[in-house]
Specification:
- The complex is a heterodimer.
- Helix content of chain A is 65%, strand content 4%.
- Chain A contains 16 helices and six strands.
- Chain A has helices spanning 4-7, 26-32, 36-52, 69-92, 100-117, 124-151, 156-175, 185-192, 200-217, 221-230, 232-237, 242-265, 280-290, 302-321, 329-344, 346-354; strands at residues 59-62, 65-68, 180-181, 194-195, 198-199, 270-271.
- Chain A has a two-stranded antiparallel ribbon with strand order 1-2. A two-stranded antiparallel ribbon of chain A has the order 3-6. Chain A has a two-stranded antiparallel sheet with strand order 4-5.
- The longest helix of chain A has 28 residues, at 124-151.
- The model of chain A is unreliable at 1-21 (pLDDT under 50).
- By secondary structure, chain B is mainly alpha-helical.
- The two termini of chain B are 24 Å apart.
- The model of chain B is unreliable at 1-17 (pLDDT under 50).
- Classes of the chains: A mainly alpha, B mainly alpha.
- At the A-B interface, helix 7, helix 13, helix 15 and helix 16 of A face helix 5, helix 6, helix 12 and helix 14 of B.
Chain lengths: 369, 349
């Protein structure tokens, strides 16, 4: 089995404690757990790939570093996972952040442009400053998004769309429309190095996962996020600082996106403002949805999000293994999203229960303004 | 011509019998965004005239003819998007549908399929995608944003299945349709009207009539108020399957826009229209339609498209690089979104 089983601990606190009496049927408890279907999907995918290509499941040690297809999948999962962590928090508050792809591009552009102009790009100090600069710019983007959503009260979808449109333009301005390429060993290490035999991106993603998990599950913050997502106004009246907390999640989301941009671009060291992070916001949303978090806001599942990110990378790898033309990947993603959303839809259960004869458009749901 | 349904706020003095009555109607808050749109357009035209007017003038029939020619497909997209946005929804699939339609045209014509059949098929592809989103939204209560996102992935995936190369459209009949135009004026000031422009203006006119002069149009506005359709029930309209229909309309418009875009580029390519849906949404917002739903003018969308096109023209004339366009569009979008928000808050106060 792959890594994630270890990482599922942070969420334990949020699970309902088992009843004192032995619950009726362990099987039922397992199959009704929100992680059940995502994990089944992931295991099925891995098994299928393993059957098709037996070398898929082998992990070998070379020079003390791990290599193999599963390691590659973990490495590929790092970027979507970083994005999806922030996205999960934003979605929990009933929002959405479409600007993460553009923020990735901006952060990477700033980092590499700084390295490009630095006197000694190969020194660790310079690389550290470059990373900090990139993350700082992402912070600004987050402050802007959060301000629009929480203070001005603009719909999250639209507020973040502004940066999605303008962000790539800003990234192009920073790189002057060139594809900035530099060489800096310490910076490159972030994307393609190994720490204790594990790829650096995986380490970065895990550290962030633990940080976020501790932040939201060992404090009351996670519960407050969910309460805001379920009913903002009621939360405010109950004394939850909904404005500041909402602002905070957009900042966290943008910070993680900035970091994701740096990790994503470090191996190639090329800031291609037009293509870095393109459509990545969709991937992040997909990871969150696959993990069982409803897009309407409210309860969110970090562990599910991790599984979602692994599923996404495994799908991308499976496409290669099964010799399906890789251009069809979006088709897969589309079908997965549609199926998952329809399966999550409470209307489907009603329809299955009442039969199709009673299928009538229902009155419209409340539109959150 | 007003947004028919309002929340039960103290309505502005409407039917006052004074001579100012007619004028005052247009000072109501719902006209502020559209006033902003027209003001922006005038301002940009003035800036253009002052900076590049010269001997030949900047504002001329030729300018508008070129604007409409370059943005005909966007106008059609934005008109379809207006219907969706008024109901409080969003349709992200339109750019991908445009690409798919272009590719289908480029693939079918060399196979000897008759041109009319191909064109009708192109429009129907859009309709089918609209129907898919509409069903997901109306019957499964999936958020419009997600449903249309899935449709966008689907369309892009199908594009990749059809072809990943750029395919030129060399069909004679198609070329004749794309190239047909009426020319006016003399020499350097020559301007023309082509088929794309006529189609785009027709779509706009039909949309205007439907939205402002039919029962269906009023229902679209009523659904956008978002109180489970209760308000419109009270005035005797049925919400029914309105949400399904607006997505079908938007999808059909995307099909038409795909054909117009193929006229414009004479090719099909699987990466066309990336970000086009955002351009359409931007044009709708700049045109004064409320993103929260329930208010907006389809004619404003027309002005919004002109503003969008003018931004590109001015940036090109300034000699700035093309990526400034995105930054400027973002800034204009920001201003209008904040303006809408301010109006909404004032209206509630």
């Amino acid at each position: 089995m792959t890594g994630p089983t270890v990482e599922l601990t942070p969420d334990r606190a949020s699970r309902p404690a088992p009843a004192a009496a032995p619950a009726p049927g362990l099987v039922r408890r397992i199959t009704h757990h929100q992680l059940f279907w995502p994990v089944v999907a992931l295991v099925a995918l891995v098994v299928l790939c393993g059957l098709k290509n037996p070398t898929f499941l082998t992990i070998e040690l070379r020079d003390g570093n791990l290599f193999g297809q599963l390691v590659d999948i973990a490495r590929m999962s790092a970027t979507p996972l970083l994005l999806a962590l922030g996205m999960a928090l934003v979605i929990a508050t009933g929002g959405i952040d479409l600007s993460v792809g553009a923020v990735m591009a901006i952060s990477l552009a700033v980092s590499l442009t700084y390295l490009d102009g630095a006197a000694n790009p190969a020194s660790v100090g310079t690389a550290a400053v470059a990373v900090l600069l990139g993350v700082a710019v992402a912070l600004l983007a987050g402050v802007f998004n959060g301000f629009m959503v929480s203070v001005l009260g603009i719909q999250p979808f639209i507020a973040t769309m502004i940066l999605m449109v303008a962000g790539r333009g800003i990234a192009m301005l920073i790189t002057q429309g060139q594809i900035t390429t530099v060489t800096s060993a310490p910076f490159k290490f972030l994307g393609s190095g190994f720490v204790l035999g594990v790829p650096t991106p995986v380490i970065v993603a895990l550290v962030m996962l633990v940080l976020v998990a501790v932040l939201v599950r060992r404090t009351a913050l996670g519960m407050l996020l969910e309460s805001i997502g379920i009913n903002r106004e009621a939360s405010r009246l109950a004394g939850v600082q909904s404005r500041n907390i909402t602002w905070l999640v957009y900042i966290v989301c943008a910070l993680l996106a900035g970091l994701a941009g740096i990790v994503y671009g470090a191996p190639t060291m090329a800031a291609d403002a037009n293509n870095i992070g393109l459509m990545k916001e969709m991937d992040a949303i997909m990871c969150v949805v696959l993990g069982g978090t409803a897009l309407a806001g409210g309860k969110f599942y970090l562990s599910g999000t991790v599984v979602g990110a692994l599923i996404l990378s495994t799908i991308e790898r499976a496409v290669v293994i099964f010799h399906v033309p890789s251009q069809i990947t979006p088709l897969f993603k589309a079908l997965v999203i549609i199926v998952v959303c329809v399966a999550q839809s409470p209307r489907l259960r009603e329809i299955l229960r009442d039969g199709l004869a009673r299928l009538r458009p229902r009155a419209l749901p409340e539109v959150a303004s | 011509m007003t947004t028919t349904v309002q929340p039960p706020a103290p309505a502005p003095v409407r039917a006052s019998r004074t001579r100012l009555g007619g004028l005052r109607r247009y000072l109501a808050p719902e006209y502020l965004p559209i006033a902003g749109t027209v003001l922006t357009l005038v301002l940009m035209l003035v800036v253009g005239e002052v900076r590049y007017g010269g001997a030949r003038g900047f504002v001329s029939p030729k300018l508008f003819s070129n604007l409409l020619q370059d943005n005909a497909y966007l106008l059609v997209l934005a008109v379809g998007m207006t219907f969706v946005v008024i109901t409080g929804g969003i349709d992200l699939s339109v750019g991908a549908v445009v690409a798919l339609v272009g590719l289908v045209i480029a693939t079918l014509l060399p196979l000897g399929v008759p041109l009319p059949v191909v064109l009708v098929l192109g429009v129907l592809i859009g309709t089918v995608f609209g129907l898919l989103i509409g069903v997901l939204v109306e019957y499964f209560d999936i958020q419009p944003f997600i449903a249309s996102l899935a449709a966008m992935f689907l369309a892009r995936g199908l594009c990749n299945v059809v072809s990943v190369q750029s395919l030129a459209i060399k069909d004679k009949g198609f070329g004749a349709l794309a190239g047909w135009s009426l020319k006016f004026g003399e020499g350097r000031d020559i301007w023309k009207i082509n088929l794309s422009m006529i189609v785009a203006v027709l779509v706009l006119a039909v949309a205007y009539v439907v939205l402002h002069h039919t029962r269906f149009g009023r229902t679209v506005y009523g659904v956008g108020v978002g109180d489970r359709g209760n308000a419109i029930q009270l005035v005797g309209l049925k919400a029914g399957r309105t949400r399904l229909w607006v997505y079908i309309i938007s999808g059909t418009c995307a099909g038409v826009a795909g054909i117009l875009f193929a006229f414009y580029t004479k090719s099909g390519f699987n990466l066309t229209g990336v970000g086009m849906e955002l351009d359409a949404i931007a044009a709708v917002v700049i045109g004064g339609t409320l993103l929260a739903g329930g208010g907006g003018f389809v004619l404003g969308t027309g002005v919004g498209v002109l503003v969008y096109g003018l931004i590109q023209v001015l940036i090109a004339r300034e000699g700035l690089d093309s990526w400034w366009t995105k930054v400027f569009i973002g800034v204009v979008l920001l201003v209008f979104v904040v303006l809408q928000r301010v109006i909404a808050v004032r209206r509630r106060a």
